[in-house]
Amino acid sequence: MMETLFEIQFPAKAERLCLIRDLVKRTAEEAGCCSELSDRIVLAVNEACMNVIQHAYQGDELGVIILEMLNNDGKLHFRLVDYAKPIDLALVKPRDLDDLRPRGLGTHFINEIMDECDMGHLEEGKGNYLEMIKKIS
Amino acid sequence: MNINTEDKGKYTVIGLEGEVDLSCSPDARESILNVLDEDKNLLVDLAKVSYIDSSGVASLVEGYQTAKKQSLKFGLVGVSDAAMSVLKLARLDQVFPIFDSLEDYEKQSS
């Protein structure tokens, strides 16, 4: 059975990420994750929020992000929604780790940590979504 | 995040403390590049880093690449478990020179 653990809407500001990390870590541990696993989940969710702030809203701090965390029988679901312009999905890809560049690690972290990821556009081009699933038991 | 810079003569140590995330990684990047602009070898002390994200790691990568271009030494020292797990995830633990301590660096540099 799908249980909503929390749903939060927050401004697309880097300063808010600390708050989101604390919330995700506490909730993941309450759902049964060990500290090490919750830290990795926090990293992935933080990177996903960063991608929205930097690439979808491109620094526009008036933007908002909605983050929902659910537990579906031992699978944690994370759904992020933004109302920025639809992003070019073809550009969202992890960089080759052998190609040493300062950017592009966030998507690699998400793919490494999460079991499933799906992203797309909201209806009528109203924004973007990202869904991530992590099996915890 | 706090940033402490200490000139040790032959090299400079930048100590990062706390959470290195998107809200403060531009400050870390600026401090790192400023030291390298002065043609100083640089060690970044990550012993007190409790969290680092890809933006913080990007600052370290940029520092490493800038130092290499300028033929300067760049390394990480006393990397915390939290920072090391992120570096390993990016496989950068095999790229950056990493030292247990300043004494370890000095021993290996002499």
Keyword list:
heterodimer; A: alpha+beta; B: about 110 residues; alpha/beta; five-stranded mixed sheet
Task: Describe the fold and architecture.
The complex is a heterodimer of chains A (137) and B (110). With 137 residues, chain A is of the alpha+beta class. Helices cover 33% and strands 30% of the residues of chain A. Chain A contains three helices and five strands, in the order βααββαββ. In chain A, helix 1 runs antiparallel to helix 2 and helix 2 runs antiparallel to helix 3. Chain A is globular, with a radius of gyration of 14 Å. The mean pLDDT of chain A is 93. Chain B has 110 residues and is of the alpha/beta class. Helices cover 42% and strands 31% of the residues of chain B. Chain B contains four helices and five strands, in the order E-E-H-E-H-E-H-E-H. In chain B, strands 1-2-3-4-5 form a five-stranded mixed β-sheet. In chain B, helix 1 runs parallel beside helix 2. The radius of gyration of chain B is 12 Å and the shape is globular. The termini of chain B are far apart. The model of chain B has no long low-confidence stretch (mean pLDDT 96). The chains are: A alpha+beta (137), B alpha/beta (110). Chains A and B meet through helix 1, helix 2 and helix 3 of A and helix 2 and helix 3 of B.
Brief overview, please?
The complex is a heterodimer of chains A (137) and B (110). Chain A is of the alpha+beta class.
